[in-house]
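Lab notebook, bench 4. Still working through the backlog of constructs that have no structural model yet. Next entry is a single chain of 212 residues. Request: give me the C-alpha cells for it.
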Amino acid sequence: MSVAETSTKKRILLAAGPIFARKGYRAATVREICDAAGVNLASISYHFGDKQQLYIDTVFLAREMRVQQIPYPEWTDETPAEDRLRGFVHSILKRMVALDSVPWQVHLLMREILQPTEACRQLVKEYFRPVFESLLEIVDQLAESSLSSLKRQQIGLSIIGQCIHYRFSSGVMSILLNEEEFREHFDLENLANHITEFSIAAIKNACHCSDK
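Model written out:
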C-alpha cells in the first residue's frame, strides 16, 4: 500500500472513530464518515470492503491508540507480585477513570464492552485475553496455595470489575460521598492502592478457604 493510500485509510479511521463512538455502529452512516474524512463512498469499499470491517478496524485503532497513550507497566523478574498488581490496576484506571475529558477511543471501547459486536470478539482474542492471562499469572504469584481455574477467573474478573466500576459510577459516587471528599480520597493513587489491597486480601482468603 502506498503512502497516499495509507494516509487516506488512516484519515477515514480517524474520522470514523468519533462518529462510531457517538452514534454506535448501526446509527452511524458510511456517507457521514466519508464526508467527515473528505473522501468518496468508493473509498470505503477499496480500503475496508464494507462498513463492518471499517468499524472493526476503527475499534482496533482505538485500542492501539490507548495502549500507546498509556502502556502497561514493564516489570523485571525481581518485581514483587504486589507491585505488579498495583501497576496493572493503576494502568487500567488511568486509561478509563483519570480523564479530564473522555476521548473518543474510550467512548468507543466502552460502547463495545457494553454492547459487544464482532469487533469485541476479535478484541478479546487478540488483546483482552492475553492481558487477562497476565493478570491471572499475578494472581497465581500472590496466592499462598494453588487455586482452581474457576476461582482464578473469578478473582481476575473481580479485579477488572472494580476498575470498571469507578469508570461508570464516579458521578453517582461524587454525590453519594460528597464531591470534595470524593476528589480528595478517591483519586487514581488511592483507588489503585485500595483495589490492590482489597484484591490481595481476597486472594489470601480464597487460598485459606480452599485449604479447608
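Notes after review: The chain has eleven helices and no strands. The two ends are 61 Å apart (CA to CA). Flag for follow-up if needed.
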